[in-house]
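WP5 quarterly update. Target: VOC family protein. Source organism: Nonomuraea turkmeniaca. Length: 135 aa.
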Amino acid sequence: MPTPPRLRVTSVTIGTSQPRELAHFYSRLLGLPVTTEDGPGPGEPDNGGWAQIRPPEHVTAPSLSFEYERSYTRPVWPSVSGEQTASQHLDIEVDDLPAAVEWAVACGAVLAEFQPQDNVRVLLDPDGHPFCLFL
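Structure tokens (predicted):
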């Protein structure tokens, strides 16, 4: 087998019906600036487009990009047979779980009804993507 080339994840792209709004939500939540914000492309509605938040140069972490998905359907969490499921989610480490949940809700997240673990809280962002806060 050949020697693998250098590969590294630099960003995660999240499909959404509201890319610019979602970028601003995660910007508030994570304290990262919105570094790119493009309006709708040809044939897209006003809420279309693309946006990105990026950590500072000295921080090694992936950027988050938000891309308009024409046929986006909000996922159901926890998953239900026959319904749209979340194909991925963000895991966000925190030092104080109750304070982080309070902050996320103040930023616009919703605490999910079902919570599978005591040291993890599942929340939904404004477009329905689940994300986890954990200790």
